[in-house]
Amino acid sequence: MKNTADKRKIIDIGDVAPSRKDFFVIGVFNPGVAQYKDEVILLLRVAEKAKSSGCLNVPIFNGETNAVEVKSFDLNDPDYNFKDPRVIYGKHRNYITSMSHLRLARSRDGIHFTVDDKPAICCQNKLQGYGVEDARITRIGDVYYIAYSSASEYGIVESLSVTKDFKTYEHKGAIFAPDNKDAAIFPDKINGKYYALHRPSSSEYGKPEMWIAESDNLTCWGNHRHFMSVRDGMFDSGRIGAGCVPFLTDEGWLELYHGATKENRYCLGAVLTDKNDPAKILARSRVPFMEPTEEFERNGFFGNVVFSCGCIARGNDVDVYYGAADKAVGLARIALRDILADMS
Amino acid sequence: MKNTADKRKIIDIGDVAPSRKDFFVIGVFNPGVAQYKDEVILLLRVAEKAKSSGCLNVPIFNGETNAVEVKSFDLNDPDYNFKDPRVIYGKHRNYITSMSHLRLARSRDGIHFTVDDKPAICCQNKLQGYGVEDARITRIGDVYYIAYSSASEYGIVESLSVTKDFKTYEHKGAIFAPDNKDAAIFPDKINGKYYALHRPSSSEYGKPEMWIAESDNLTCWGNHRHFMSVRDGMFDSGRIGAGCVPFLTDEGWLELYHGATKENRYCLGAVLTDKNDPAKILARSRVPFMEPTEEFERNGFFGNVVFSCGCIARGNDVDVYYGAADKAVGLARIALRDILADMS
């Protein structure tokens, strides 16, 4: 199965109100997904920039006032390099030109969504000073565990927030130390342990690859093991990371992950692991089951990207919600047998 | 107090037998320290190289055979760069020219040590493929928790092994994902939680600084928080990391840490934290309480380094065991009031 998925764009930046009058939305993408009562819930990543004229205004969390403020940069300031539209490189510290928060959207049919006016989860401490990104939602019993990444001047960490109603969220702190992102918690204890996939970045010897960790309580994690490698010459040669929250099939746990080439073309692949040992890999996609082929996937804020943080398994089909080109949200309905067919 | 410590070299490479006939010892340094019955125990880091003639032989763990083997490099092989005596830079993968293990030494007076002939802890899995390094030993009840780092092609992780007798060791896996080193576990629960200092390396935004984490069971860790920063223009401007296992004083928890300049001159400083909240910093060394001044600290395998992984508090004095120039072990007896005097 290649590119035969039923794909459509379901949310774009025009559907999302900015969180403040002095901000504007530049991307809505990479949603976390959950079935909550009779609705599909998305926790959208909404990226915003601050309106600027003359100078460059950048949203930044102030750890002393505990609030998001706007910092103005003089474009002629020789202490900063403004050439990259995404990052300001400074003498002592770098800044990101945009800031993301998580926004709730809800739908009864899973296709047509109503987006909240206000953020659900914003940066709330100094480890999240550049915003919060890429939620993955795991339901265990009637509790929803939301793992998401955040960048700051201290690095990139993976945090955990918990909710029962998608109205109030309890923050449980950083669960993986920097640099780490792309954490997906398995939705059940397996042989008495919780498991999570995560993606540390090694600065010296290692590559951006997937790891697996264990926990008794979902907030403290240990027994970190290397889970899966990049593959030279294939669609996942540059970097890989967890995509959707894994779900159980007749064949074992199925994880839909993202793989990028060194040229940053992001596709989706799948990995199947043992029902009783999620660290034991049984099969892996030989080719991606989804690639950036549509116009809205090829062109956006950062082109040639399909990137998923969540899906809903519906019997023989999987509804994969995904970020397209770091700008919009797409939905692909894919037959489970098509994903499994290209694995070995 | 500067450089007035009573310092002496107590173990050098001539005191340590190689672990194999085809290896030779290039450094014995950075020991973990524990009081065990009526003896002071050191877990020495012993770095070895493989004997070579013509080619370059390198010790490497083979994950398939689960054994340390010797890999031969042809010095004319164009796929590798051999200019750095410590690291071989390859097209697809780098190698370290030496491999470390942990070796036990024991002493009744804390000064004169008998070094075991055989390793206590060697690399035992693929995450430790380039060896194990820099043990820090925390006694809780009658159990000794040994945190130590290891490098491999997958990055640098911090692992935990446990012993009651320094004869058998139970391996508990990697407690911090890559890249991470310099973990020191506090020797008591504080308000119902265990705490550890650790040193993640961020590849993008963060700096090599100290963090603190919490645990219920010492094997799984969470609530990672940034603990302490480097300081421009000071002895700890380049990188900092935990040194000794923290110990309780009348003023609070005292942590003796290492701070290096960007030019890699390693000194020892101290940080004092609240008795009931180890994340709350009360005071920090304005100047190092120990600097590399002696010949054996200035010249060795990697010069201008004093680096401690453990100490024994003896009332008004602290016996600081330390690695000198990545080659030998030193012992400094320092008055506690001298360490505290230079803090603010």
Count of extended strands of chain A: 26
Q: Return Rg of chain A in Å.
A: 19 Å
Uncertain regions spanning at least 5 consecutive residues of chain A: none
Mean pLDDT across the residues of chain A is 95
Shape of chain A: globular
Determine the strand fraction of chain A and express it as a percent band: over 45%
Contiguous helical run count of chain A: 2
Helix and strand string of chain A, N-terminal first? EEEEEEEEEEEEEEEEEEEEEEEHEEEH
N-C termini distance of chain A: 14 Å
State the major sheet of chain A: 5 strands, antiparallel
Subunit arrangement of the protein:
homodimer
Structural class of chain A: mainly beta
Biggest interface, chains and residues, is: A-B, 45 and 45 residues
Helix content of chain A: under 10%
Write the layout of secondary structure elements.
Two copies of one chain form a homodimer.
Chain A: E1 6-11, E2 23-36, E3 39-50, E4 56-62, E5 67-73, E6 80-81, E7 87-90, E8 95-96, E9 99-107, E10 114-121, E11 132-140, E12 143-152, E13 155-163, E14 170-176, E15 180-185, E16 194-200, E17 210-215, E18 220-228, E19 239-242, E20 247-249, E21 252-260, E22 266-274, E23 277-284, H1 295-298, E24 306-314, E25 317-324, E26 328-335, H2 336-341
Antiparallel strand pairs in A: 1-26, 2-3, 3-9, 4-5, 6-7, 7-8, 9-10, 11-12, 12-13, 13-14, 15-16, 16-17, 17-18, 19-21, 20-21, 21-22, 22-23, 24-25, 25-26
